[in-house]
Design goal:
InterPro entries: Palmitoyltrfase_DHHC (IPR001594), PFA4/ZDH16/20/ERF2-like (IPR039859). The protein is mainly α. The chain has a domain at 29-80 and 87-126 and 187-333. The chain is built from seven helices and four strands; from the N terminus they run ααβββαααααβ. The strands form two sheets. The chain has a two-stranded antiparallel ribbon. A two-stranded antiparallel ribbon has the order 2-3. Helix 5 packs across helix 7. It is globular and about 70 Å long. The model is unreliable at 110-115, 130-141, 143-160, 171-176 and 353-360 (pLDDT under 50).
Length: 360
Amino acid sequence: MMCSRVVFKCFKTFERLADRITGAAGPFFVAFAVILIGLGTVCFFDVIMPSLMFPLISGPICLLIALNLWMHYFYVITVPPGFADDPPTDFAKDNAQNSIFWASKKSPRHRELTGVRWSNEIVITRAAVTKSNKFAAHASSGSEHTTVVYANAASSNTTTTARYHSVSLCSSLTLDAPGINQCVGLHNERHFVMFLIYLVISCASYSVTGFPHVLNALGAGSTYNFDWPYHVPQIAFIMIYILAVVMALAVGIMGSFHLWSIAQGETTVEGQDHEVYRNMAKARNETFVNSYDLGKRRNLEMFFNVGENGYPLYTLFIPLRINPYTDGRSWARREGYEQHHGIRRGEELTDDDEEPEAEA
């Protein structure tokens, strides 16, 4: 109907305007995030660090946490998320991986398949190839557990593969999360999740260990001294402390959601689609089964690319670059499943959000 067409056009106009605004403000958000993280780091090492017990143990641990926080943040805003038209990557011959920032992979016990981890226990299937007449070939690869991927909004007849999604918000490299100014896809989501984890650890540590110092700065501590013996002003320390408490709670919830999605073997977009599929299957007295779900432990291992034929476990604690287990063109599935169980071909949801047609 005419009313729905007008509402839809108004909504799309407002969405495009919001995209331009957030896209233009993106670099300022990054600068603001760098300033806040930097102030938090300075406050911790100037005020809290000298008072910690067992400095020979706590000191290196705190330095390692700070290093992970900064390096993963750097990676997530600089590493491209991956595009549908990127050529297949031969990970073994990638010269960029000779950099000191790249981790060394274990010697494979089984053969590899074009950048995809391969073992006798994992079934690897090629992604189905489809045509998209809406987006150009800049659809970012939906990593096995990615949050947001993006596409250029220019019309084109484009080849895409399964688990690639188009999100108009990222058509101009706008914000995927506050202070990132980057979309998250196959090649940088691991760093995004690691950044969230270490941000929560940092903020929680700051909140717990900094509480006595906040009381002292407010004049309520048992050892209050009018002489504040630190370089950081008291008001700055208190404000950063309040921010750390809020961030520990907010980012903790966000990070938990991402880890839960990873453990379920689905992307954020897929999580929404799978709810629809479950209802479809239930209406037919069937049970929907996600063919990409290999079990929580294996899903986590595949996402972080550790364990058998992956990278060593120390890559979870030392901020080195690593490749994902897949090149985005092949995916691990449950044995015996070539597709999701409980839905029929043609019922799969797509990213098409064209203007709705008026009812006859």
